[in-house]
Amino acid sequence: MLPPIVIDDVRPRTPGGFPAKAVVGEHVMVSAILIGDGHDLLAGRVRWRAIGSDEWASSPLTLEGNDLWTGELVATEIGPHELVVEAWTDRYSTWRHEIEVKLQAGQDVALELEEGALLLDELAQRVAPPDGERLGAVADAMRGGGPSAARLASATADDLAAVVAGLPDARFSSSPPHPLWVDRPIAAHAAWYELFPRSFGGLAGAARHLPYVADLGFDVVYLPPIHPIGVTYRKGRDNSLTLSPDDPGSPWAIGSADGGHDAVHPELGTLADFDAFVAAAAELGLEVALDYALQCSPDHPWVHDHPEWFRRRPDGSIRYAENPPKKYQDIHPIEFWPAADADRVALWEACRDVLEHWIGHGVRTFRVDNPHTKPLAFWEWLLRDVRSRHPEVVFLSEAFTQPAMMAKLAEVGFSQSYTYFTWRHEAWELRQYVTELTEHPLVEYMRPSFWPNTPDILDEHLRHAPPSAFALRLVLAATLVPAYGIYSGYELIENEPASDTTTEYLHSEKYEIKVRDYDQPHSLAPLIRTLHQIRRRHPAVWALRDVRFHPSDNEQVLAYSRGHLDRDLLLVVVNLDPHRAQETLVHLDVYALGIAPGHYHLHDELTGARYEWDGDTGYVRLDPTHGQVAHVFHITP
Length: 637
Prior knowledge:
Layout: E1 6-11, E2 20-23, E3 27-35, E4 42-50, E5 57-65, E6 68-74, E7 79-89, H1 91-104, H2 110-124, H3 129-142, H4 148-153, H5 158-164, E8 172-174, E9 178-183, E10 190-194, H6 203-216, E11 220-223, H7 271-283, E12 287-292, E13 295-296, H8 301-305, E14 321-323, E15 326-328, E16 332-333, H9 341-359, E17 365-369, H10 376-389, E18 394-398, H11 403-412, E19 416-418, H12 427-437, E20 448-450, H13 467-480, E21 483-487, H14 525-537, E22 547-550, E23 557-564, E24 568-575, E25 582-587, H15 590-593, E26 599-604, E27 610-614, E28 617-622, E29 630-636
Parallel strand pairs: 2-9, 10-11, 10-21, 11-12, 12-17, 17-18, 18-19, 19-20, 20-21
Antiparallel strand pairs: 1-3, 3-6, 4-5, 4-7, 5-6, 7-8, 7-9, 13-16, 14-15, 22-23, 23-24, 24-29, 25-28, 26-27, 26-29
Helix pairs in contact: 1-2, 2-3, 6-7, 9-10, 13-14
């Protein structure tokens, strides 16, 4: 049987009933459809608590229209939570509304006054003594003599209404509990920088490079696999099958006689060197992310000790990894569903123990390689199991795959996800894609991370491209969503592809050591540093929902805002053409942004220039040949 008040479409939630996502301190939007019978007014609230706690927090819901009620919650600790929406007939507000209408119409309200007095007597028993005494006194006054309007005034005062607000009626409805997972803030908004320690001579050399990364303002330094690299079928330079004696091989071909996923490659150093690297990063305010790649070289100890964890081909050989037309003869995929269930349990626990090992060495963030090629059931189990002991751990999903799989990985527990941003360049593509990511239902459980490049991907728009192309993509990635990252060399405009038909870099660092001069005059380091200062000054960039696109008369110019004038408001205008100057009129939705009619000020936080606009239209001209690819305006009245 349906309850007295029907509660439908509670959000946030996920399609499959997995926990929605939040971070500590985040104002999470909560909404529900509340349906009651008759003309009585309703009231509602959201209540939430950490799992295992007896203490509930609550916040009121407000009617938006068409039976849609909204509010917000703010969690204060990480880990699993639950939320419920409660609704009831608001007898006080209903009585207050009806008696005011009748009084204005000149009707006799004597009975209504007595009904109100009885209601206040009842409510007085449910509030703290000072307020209860006041409610009782007001009820007594309503029973006294004098004009009805005077007797009613104290009973309908707004401050008295606040006393009784949020007191559920005896007949109230409650939704089933909805799960919510609360992360550290770094899981939602952070800037990542990827580097290969071997290109700095090992972990000790990479540690000496950390001040550069910290000075640029990054939050996370991400390391590709640091484990021993196999010798069998080791790849040479540019993914060649021909190997030179000094070719180091691919770090993703994990495992050799020196150990597997829980070991450090001897050429990089020791576990003590890794611990020192983590400590040095922490002193600089950097968090270390480690690659979690569940695959093995032919020389990995697992291949010899657990052949049942790998798939054999008809000729008896172990299948190697392929992403046609690419072939990875130096890598064996793991078979996550071996024939015997005992073998599956042993394999899954061994994979879990790898994470436990590195967590024990100070790693709290993992970038997961190709999670879409492993079972969803495995990730559901693994992420839940690890977080039951380490709720602070963050997982970034590297799943360049179909949208449904990308979303499902986020739903089962991944903290962040790589996205298709790398391949979205036109204004309409960016508007459409970012809108998809920042609206229901994805916004409630999938956190996008925008990467303009990776060691595998030199996008066609960056091949042989000028610095302005790299700069505009950097601005987009750093300001469209709260989380983004770059692979080292991006700031140095590394733009040479292996060929015109591949996304691979020429002389890819995946297969060779790459020594760079980070002091090059054309480096984007100053722009990166400025963007990160902007990101830290402006909480408008931290929220995924607060992005709004504004019309531009020129499709080569993309305009979008972050935030609201009442809190913090940025307007970003980007020239998507890296070769030519573009100009346009930008039309702002000033009402939605909270901008009152009249003049308002725009401070370009990239250049320091100041402008003044009037009304909903402003002129912009950006010339990339003079280093002008974007404005990042802070708007004030």
